Amino acid sequence: MLQRSIDRVTSIPPLGPGFDGERHKAALVIAPGDLASTDPFFLMADDNITLEGRFGDAHPHAGLETVTFMLKGTMEDTGGRLEEGDVEWMTAGSGIVHSENAMVSTGMRLFQLWLILPEAQRNMPPRVQVLRRADMPVHAEAGVTAIVYSGQLKDAAAPTLNVVPVTLIDIQLEAGAAFAPQLPASYNTFAVTIDGEVKAGATGAPLATGSVGWTSPIGEGVSSLTLRAGDSGARVLLYAGLPQSIDVVAQGPFIAGSRDELAGYYAAYRHGKFPHAGTMRPVAHA
């Protein structure tokens, strides 16, 4: 089996002013502009709230998927409520409006990831999936608990409907524990250390809290990425996805294949043609 190594390590930058006043601090885990290296992941934001209350305004998306992982606290809007450990997987597709009347708790923290969509599905009908932590399959072995939100890890297969093939796993490691999840070798992969320290990959690259370790596609078939926790244990979010290798243009909340397509999204939104997420029933999983 192919053994992955960490190609590069970045860090979550210090939190700075967010879009929602003094109580909102944010940083970019993945900054846009280097899709060749991050494909299919376009950007990922780390949003933090210091005081409960309204959070942002209703806004549109099109041409992408958003994956919102609630790390701490809660967020509730007209579409429902996300608790700690829940994930909202929203396929914007041809266009959707969300975050209507959003309310968040003190100390809330979330990661929001943007995924580009394949050309053939870029304008598919929008859908919303709510992945409850308690309902997600779990893989457990000595010193390791891994919650699978998307994709498959051994016998633990998530029910998530994917447009772009993506694996998302929340991994808890006890002190000194080692774990080597298997991933398609063709996937671009990054690991975010939420707490503790790990040594990752064949060379044991050190990843401390706030570190992001990237491992590029290495061929076909199956690969593994070894993670070994330090003396205090660790929690790691592992994201892996199939690169789409397409050219896109982005502006504001939209990702498109051309400037004309972008203009079409803006026109459709202005004319009220985007459905509202709060009126859509989340996809029911078997």
Number of separate domains: 2
Q: What Rg is obtained from the alpha carbons, in whole angstroms?
A: 18 Å
Return the CATH topology of the largest domain: Jelly Rolls
| Alpha-beta classification | mainly beta
Summed up, the helix count is 2
The gross shape turns out to be: globular
User: What's the level 1 CATH class of the largest domain?
Assistant: Mainly Beta
Q: Give the distance, in angstroms, between the N- and C-terminal Cα atoms.
A: 32 Å
Q: What can be said about the biggest beta sheet?
A: 9 strands, antiparallel
Identify the CATH architecture of the largest domain.
Sandwich
Number of DSSP-assigned strands = 29
CATH superfamily of the largest domain: Jelly Rolls
Beta-strand share of residues: over 45%
Q: Average pLDDT across residues?
A: 95
Low-confidence stretches: none
Helix content: under 10%
Q: Could you walk me through the main structural features you see in this protein, from its secondary elements to its overall organization?
A:
The chain is globular, with a radius of gyration of 18 Å. The protein has 2 domains: 12-133 and 258-275, Jelly Rolls, CATH 2.60.120; 137-241, Sandwich (Jelly Rolls), CATH 2.60.120.10. The chain is built from 2 helices and 29 strands. Strand 18 (152-153) and strand 19 (156-157) form a beta hairpin. The protein has helices at 35-38, 259-270, and strands spanning 2-3, 8-11, 16-17, 24-30, 41-49, 53-54, 59-61, 64-72, 75-77, 80-82, 87-91, 96-98, 103-104, 109-116, 127-131, 138-141, 144-150, 152-153, 156-157, 166-173, 178-179, 182-184, 188-200, 205-207, 211-215, 222-224, 227-241, 249-251, 254-256. It is mainly beta and 286 residues long. The strands form 7 sheets. Strands 2, 16, 17, 20, 21, 23, 24, 25 and 27 form a 9-stranded antiparallel beta sheet that branches. It has a 7-stranded antiparallel beta sheet with strand order 3-4-5-14-8-11-15, with no helix packed on it. The longest helix is centred in the C-terminal third of the chain and has 12 residues, at 259-270. It starts with a strand and ends in a 16-residue tail after the last helix.
